[in-house]
Design a protein that fits this description.
Mean pLDDT of chain B: 83
Radius of gyration of chain B: 22 Å
Structural class of chain A: alpha/beta
Number of strands of chain A: 23
Radius of gyration of chain A: 30 Å
Largest sheet of chain A: 6 strands, mixed
Strand content of chain A: 25-35%
Low-confidence stretches of chain A: 265-270, 431-450
Distance between the termini of chain A: 45 Å
Shape of chain B: globular
Oligomer: heterodimer
Low-confidence stretches of chain B: 1-16
Number of helices of chain A: 9
Strand order of the largest sheet of chain A: 6-7-8-4-9-10
Largest interface: A-B, 43 and 41 residues
């Protein structure tokens, strides 16, 4: 293995090169370092390989200036270890690490603050931990204090700070160190919402100014909007790398499949008496939620096709039955309840077994848990043959392709009509005439997914 | 989850970073070193009323105690001006002892930092020793004031005092580097050192002069040169002897003391630095 770190960016060279990097940890079985342990080692027993584990097994990565790389993967896949190798906290067990440039990371906000020192003193201390000189910190001091927005507390020992103030000061210092490479590891889980937004804004600004960034996040939406490359790590290996939209999609499919595989519960829920009633001339025997390939699933993604299929069994022939279903959000809101009568689909006579299905080409529900009720009634809705009240559960997984907040995605187009400010443009006779700018993000994004 | 992976190739701990690159990096982080020293000194007196005045007050109070104890209660007739004699040896010893104990825990107590940020780890024990050095220099101011009042004969070689302080700092740092590394892996280090330092204190002529020892000891029929052995085996004995020569005896001190302590300090520092950097890579996972 070899590690090379310089604080200077070499033009034309990548900022970071990781070459077949692996990292081993020894599981600590709380044996400490007792005398027995020492004796055993002195007696020359070889270290056992049983309690070794490898958070990173073979990882090759090149980061060029201006890159923004989003790292995704399940917990324990080696993401944090990767960041620690890059910062230099841990050396690799095998492989080469080359880092050219100054690295700051947002994974240790407020680490190294001395509780007895004031906020101002800690700004200098923290800055020097990041490798900045006193003169460089002098330049940034005002900006940092303004950003942290602590008021008089800046001259108070940080031990009197609230945890939010602590983190705010830590972030303010870190973001103002203007590193060649910024590492971000789920920092936005701290602080209040307005501070989180400010953090995000600063990270976006850093990115717009051409800064290089490595972002570890479970927020796949951020990864897609912020990054130009995504890296999916699984079991210490690179599972996929490339265009964030592609990698995130593959990752999500993989996770959905995993979840599906773990979902051993039956697709139809056994009903209690209170949840099912009716005269049973027509029985709804099972309900399936199917994807585009007709495969039953319990987890779906916004924008993909969804088919709801009801299997029925007639205990006696009936005339003009009406089938319907209802979708409720888990909070109880009734979102939609179509039936065959609304659709003017007349079913003259029904007997024996069969199925009836309803296909939604682009399922508009957004992330959340939903309940499905199904019913078969007579033409005038005076007799209920079979009613399953909120008996079927399905989940809509987070989709980065969603176009807004809420429960349901409505399709629409944005249009911007800008009128130039006449006062500002007095001197410009050839001001460009306003042109309407039409955007239709939902249409295009959903097509690509389907 | 865990998949047994056989080693792809022979593992060798890489020493690919040259010593010059390491020292350059250390130099680049000099502001961190300074800030750590300052914050160490600041936090020490943070909640005390008198603040850093204690650095001056402490040796003064010590001297008063010694004057009462050894000047009035049990006057020492063998050594003139015993309180001054004592202080000339005790202050350097305290500097050494404080350096050792504060550097032992320097890495461990900054575990939060070590685990989360990269910087040259040797900065931590260096800062610990330098903070003690500052303390020692303040105490020396008091000692000098006392020397002027009592009117001892300063050695014409007094200008070598900074040199001897430098030598002692290097020696302490060398030991501090080794011990702070050991402490990360074995918490017993500090407990062992508490005993070792106690023994070391009595093996060092702080309360007595080496001349009070017999020239030779006879053990199992062998004549052992006790004084020579003391000076050779115990660098602190030599160091404190030099301090005494310069401050108390007004003697120019022997050149072999200088050479021997310089060499010892250099070896200790080199070994300590090598030892520290050999294992500092692993601090991130061990602290």
């Amino acid at each position: 293995m070899s590690v090379l770190r310089t604080h200077v960016v070499v033009p034309g060279e990548p900022l970071i090169e990781l070459n077949h990097v692996a990292r081993r940890f020894t599981k600590k079985l709380d044996r400490g370092r007792s005398l027995q342990d020492l004796f055993i080692r002195l007696l020359g027993r070889k270290r056992s390989t049983v309690d070794d584990f490898w958070p990173l097994r073979d990882l090759t990565l090149t980061v060029n200036p201006g890159d923004c790389i989003g790292v995704i993967g399940p917990n324990g896949s080696g993401k944090s270890t990767l960041l620690k190798l890059i910062t230099g906290i841990l050396p690799p067990t095998f492989g080469d690490v080359i880092v050219r440039g100054r690295v700051s990371s947002l994974l240790e906000l407020g680490a190294g603050f001395q509780n007895d020192l004031t906020g101002r003193e800690n700004i200098y201390l923290n800055g020097s931990i990041y490798g900045l000189s006193r003169a460089e910190m002098d330049e940034r001091l005002e900006k940092i204090i303004a950003y942290a927005d602590l008021g008089d507390f800046i001259d108070t020992p940080v031990k009197h700070y609230s945890s939010g103030m602590y983190v705010r000061l830590g972030f303010a210092v870190a973001i103002h160190t203007e590193p060649d490479l910024l590492l971000v590891d789920e920092v936005l889980a701290v602080g209040d919402v307005s501070f989180q937004n400010r953090c995000m804004e600063s990270i976006y600004r850093f990115r717009r100014q051409g800064g290089t960034l490595i972002l570890v996040s479970h927020d796949l939406g951020t990864i897609q909007t912020l990054c130009n490359r995504a890296l999916w790590i699984e079991n210490g290996l690179v599972a996929a790398e490339g265009n964030p939209a592609d990698v995130v999609m593959t990752y999500k499919q993989h996770m959905a499949e995993l979840e599906e595989a773990q979902n051993d519960r039956p697709k139809t829920v056994r009903l209690g008496d209170g949840e099912r009633w009716g005269t049973r001339e027509v029985e709804i025997t099972s309900v399936e939620l199917c994807d585009a390939n007709g495969q039953p699933r319990t987890t779906f993604v916004t924008g993909e096709p969804l088919t709801i299929r009801l299997h029925y069994h007639c205990t006696q022939p009936v005339e003009y039955p009406v089938f319907g279903f209802g979708i409720n959000h888990q909070n109880g809101t009734h979102i939609f309840g179509p039936n065959t009568k609304f659709a003017e689909l007349a079913i003259d006579n029904l007997s024996g077994d069969g199925s009836i299905s309803y296909t939604i080409p682009e399922m508009p529900l957004l992330e959340g848990q939903y309940w499905l009720s199904v019913a078969a009634v007579n033409d005038t809705d005076t007799a209920t043959y079979d009613y399953h009240d909120r008996a079927y559960n399905f989940r809509v997984a987070y989709s980065p392709l969603r176009a807004g907040y809420g429960m349901v995605q409505l399709h629409g187009d944005w249009q911007v009509d800008s009128k130039p400010d006449t006062e500002l443009n007095n001197g410009l006779n050839n001001a460009p005439s306003p042109t309407p700018l039409t955007l239709s993000p939902t249409d295009t994004s959903i097509r690509t997914e389907a | 989850m865990t998949i047994a992976t056989e080693a792809p190739h022979e593992e060798r701990p890489g020493r690919s970073v040259s010593i010059i690159a390491r020292l350059q990096e250390l130099f680049r982080y000099r502001d961190l070193l300074r800030n750590l020293v300052v914050s160490e000194i600041k936090t020490r007196y943070k909640n005390s009323v008198l603040g850093f005045v204690w650095s001056l007050l402490n040796p003064l109070a010590m001297m008063m105690v010694f004057t009462v104890v050894f000047g009035v209660l049990w006057p020492n007739h063998q050594i003139d001006n015993f309180p001054i004699f004592l202080l000339c040896g005790l202050l350097p010893w305290n500097f050494f002892s404080a350096s050792v104990f504060s550097s032992i825990n320097s890495v461990l107590s900054n575990g939060n930092l070590v685990k989360k940020v990269y910087f040259p780890r040797e900065i931590l024990p260096i800062a610990a020793v330098l903070a003690q050095l500052v303390n020692f220099l303040l105490a020396l101011v008091v000692l000098f004031a006392a020397l002027l009042i009592v009117g001892t004969n300063f050695s014409p070689w007094l200008w070598t005092l900074p040199l001897i302080i430098l030598i002692q700092t290097c020696f302490s740092l060398g030991i501090g580097l080794v011990l702070s590394t050991l402490q990360v892996f074995y918490r017993d280090t500090q407990l062992v050192m508490e005993v070792v330092m106690l023994a070391w204190f009595f093996l060092t002529p702080v309360f007595y002069t080496a001349n009070q020892l017999p020239e030779t000891y006879t053990i199992w029929g062998y004549d052992l040169p006790a004084q020579r052995i003391l000076y050779i085996l115990n660098p602190m004995a030599s160091l404190i002897n030099v301090y005494r020569d310069l401050l108390y005896n007004g003697y120019r001190t022997d050149i072999d003391f200088f050479i021997r302590t310089t060499i010892t300090a250099f070896l200790a520092l080199s070994f300590g630095y090598w030892f520290f950097t050999r294992y500092s890579d692993r601090f991130g996972e061990e602290v």
